[in-house]
Specification:
Shape: globular
Number of domains: 4
CATH class of the largest domain: Alpha Beta
Helix content: 25-40%
Distance between the termini: 54 Å
Bound molecules: 5'-deoxyadenosine, iron/sulfur cluster
CATH topology of the largest domain: Rossmann fold
Oligomer: single chain
Number of strands: 19
Number of helices: 13
Largest sheet: 6 strands, parallel
CATH architecture of the largest domain: 3-Layer(aba) Sandwich
C-alpha cells in the first residue's frame, strides 16, 4: 500500500457507483480515501469523471442486472469521446473476473473486494493503458484492512468494518465465494478507526461484517464480539452503537447481556431469519430452528425491553411449500418484526441450493404471490408500529439530515431505528433532539420538536444513550 502523503491537487475526478450492501458502501469510502492520495477528488457527475468505478453486488440476479445497465451508461460516455478509465469492482467482479473483461472490451479494470487495499496500484496500471484483472483472494493472516477514513464521512453515523468474508455456507448465498473466508480485523485497528471518526464529529458507529457475532473466534488472542461492543462503548464521544449483520445461531449470552448493560447499544437489531419453517431452515443450512430463533429473541427482549427487530426473509426457496411459507408469515407476527427486507429466492452460480432448485423449484408466479403477501403483512405491522408511537415523545432522535422531500424539514432516527421527519434547522444535524410523534406512516413518522424551555419543560430529556426504550415497545398498537 502506498503510504505517500496525500496529493491534494484536484486534478482528477472519480465517480463511484455503489450497488449492494453496507460492505460495498464502506469499501467505496475506503476506495475514495486511498484514491485521494493520488489526487482523485470525488464527483457526483460521471460526465466529469476521469475514473468511473462500479462497485457491484451479486447477491441476487437483479443486482447483477443493475451493473450491466450502469456499465451501458458509462461505456456510452467513453464511446462518445470522454477520456475515462472504467473499472468494475466488488462481488460480481470477483465472481466473473476475466469474462467481464471479455464481454466489455472498453472496461479497463476488474477487481474484487480484496483488491480494495491495492486500489492505487491497480488504478495506476489501468490509467497507463494496461487492462487489469485482480481477483486473487488475499491471505487471511495479516489481512490489510484499510485504515484511511472516507474523506466524505458525515457527522452523524459511520460504518466501521470488523471482519471480512464469511465462513458459513448458507446454501443460497454467494458471499462466501465472492468475499472469501472470514478474517477478523484486529480490535486495536477498529478502535483507532472509531476514535478517528469520533474526532471528526461522528456520533453513531455501526460495526459491520458478514457475520459479526463470530468476530474474533478464529484468532487466538483476539477479543470476542461482546467484548468489542464494550470497548467501542468506552470510546469517549460514541453516543450510539449499531451492528450488522448477525447470525441467529451465533448470538451468545454475552451479547444478550450487553443489551442489559450498555445504554449506548441501540434498541434495534437486524437479525436475518430467512424462513420461519424448520424444514426450509435445514435446507438453507442455517443451523437454528424457529423455536431457537424465538428463544434468542425472547432473551434479547428480556435484556432490553422494547428491542425493535428487523429481519431478512427469502420466499420461494426450492421446495418451499404453502405450509412452509405460512410458517414464515406467522413468524413475522410472533417475532414482531417492525421491518423486513424480503426477497424472492434468486439462484446464484456455484451455490449448493442450485441442486435443490433443479429438483424442486418453486414456480416464479407462486414465489411472487408469496412475496407480495409477506410484504403486505409486513407493511401492516410497520404501519401499526409507527402508529403506536403517535402521541408519545421520543427523546433520542439523532438528526441525520434534511428531509429529501420537504424543505425546512429534517429527519432523524430513534434508538429503535424509527425514522421521524419534523421541522428543524440544518444546524441540528448530528445532535439529539426530543420529538413528539404526531403521525405514523408505513416507513416513517411525522413529528414536532419539543423544545427544552428550561425547568418544568415536558421534555425531561435523559440525553443521548439513555437506557431503555424511548417510547412504547414496538407493536403494541
Ligand atoms: N436469493 C435471494 N435472496 C438472497 N439473499 C442472499 N442470497 C440470496 C439469494 N440467492 C438475501 C438474504 C440475506 C440478504 C442479504 O440477501 O436474505 O440475508
Ligand atoms: Fe451469506 Fe449466510 Fe454468510 Fe450471510 S451468513 S453472508 S447469508 S453465507
Amino acid at each position: 500500500m502506498d503510504r505517500s502523503p496525500p496529493n491534494t491537487s484536484p486534478d482528477r475526478r472519480v465517480f463511484i457507483h455503489t450497488l449492494g450492501c453496507q460492505m460495498n458502501v464502506y469499501d467505496t469510502g475506503k476506495m475514495h480515501a486511498q484514491l485521494a492520495r493520488d489526487g482523485y477528488v470525488p464527483t457526483d457527475d460521471p460526465v466529469q469523471a476521469d475514473l468511473i468505478l462500479v462497485n457491484t453486488c451479486s447477491i441476487r440476479e437483479r443486482a447483477v442486472d443493475k451493473m450491466h445497465s450502469a456499465l451501458g451508461e458509462y461505456r456510452r460516455l467513453k464511446k462518445g469521446g470522454q477520456r475515462v478509465t472504467i473499472g468494475i469492482a466488488g462481488c460480481v467482479a470477483q465472481e466473473r473476473g476475466e469474462s467481464l473483461l471479455q464481454r466489455y472490451p472498453d472496461v479497463d479494470l476488474v477487481f474484487g473486494p480484496d483488491g480494495v487495499p491495492q486500489i492505487q496500484r491497480l488504478v495506476a496500471s489501468a490509467v497507463q493503458g494496461q487492462r487489469v484483472l485482480d481477483t486473487e483472494l488475499l491471505e487471511l493472516s495479516g489481512y490489510p484492512f484499510v485504515s484511511d477514513v472516507d474523506p466524505a464521512i458525515d457527522k452523524v453515523g459511520a460504518f466501521v468494518t470488523i471482519q471480512k468474508g464469511c465462513d458459513n455456507k448458507c446454501t443460497f448465498c454467494i458471499v462466501p465465494a465472492t468475499r472469501g473466508a472470514e478474517a477478523s480485523r484486529p480490535h486495536r485497528e477498529i478502535l483507532a478507526e472509531v476514535r478517528a471518526l469520533v474526532a471528526r464529529g461522528v456520533r453513531e458507529i455501526t460495526l459491520i461484517g458478514q457475520n459479526v457475532n463470530s468476530y474474533g473466534l478464529k484468532d487466538r488472542g483476539e477479543i470476542t464480539f461482546a467484548q468489542l461492543l464494550y470497548e467501542v462503548a468506552d470510546v469517549p464521544g460514541v453516543e450510539r452503537i449499531r451492528y450488522t449483520t448477525s447470525h441467529p445461531r451465533d448470538m451468545g449470552d454475552d451479547v444478550v447481556s450487553a443489551y442489559r448493560e450498555l445504554p449506548s447499544l441501540a434498541s434495534h437489531l437486524h437479525l436475518p431469519v430467512q424462513s420461519g419453517s424448520n424444514r426450509v431452515l435445514r435446507r438453507m443450512k442455517r443451523f437454528y430452528t424457529r423455536e431457537r430463533f424465538l428463544e434468542v429473541v425472547a432473551a434479547l427482549r428480556t435484556a432490553r425491553p422494547g428491542l425493535a427487530l428487523t429481519t431478512d426473509v427469502i420466499v420461494g426457496f426450492p421446495g418451499e411449500t404453502d405450509e412452509d411459507f405460512e410458517a414464515t408469515l406467522s413468524l413475522l407476527e410472533e417475532a414482531d418484526f417492525i421491518g423486513s427486507f424480503s426477497f424472492k429466492y434468486s439462484p446464484r452460480p456455484g451455490t449448493p441450493a442450485l441442486k435443490l432448485e433443479d429438483r424442486d423449484p418453486v414456480p416464479a408466479s407462486v414465489a411472487s404471490a408469496r412475496l407480495t403477501k409477506y410484504q403486505d403483512r409486513q407493511r401492516d405491522r410497520s404501519l401499526a408500529w409507527h402508529r403506536s408511537l403517535e402521541g408519545t415523545i421520543v427523546h433520542d432522535v439523532l438528526v441525520e439530515g434534511p428531509s429529501r422531500h420537504d424543505p425546512g424539514v429534517i429527519c432523524g432516527r430513534t434508538s429503535q431505528h424509527a425514522m421521524i421527519n419534523f421541522e428543524g434547522g440544518l444546524e441540528q444535524i448530528g445532535s439529539f433532539v426530543s420529538v413528539r410523534v404526531t403521525r405514523g406512516f408505513t416507513h416513517s413518522c411525522r413529528g414536532e420538536q419539543v423544545h427544552r424551555a428550561g425547568s418544568g419543560s415536558e421534555s425531561d430529556r435523559p440525553g443521548p444513550g439513555a437506557k431503555g426504550p424511548p417510547a412504547r415497545p414496538p407493536g403494541t398498537a
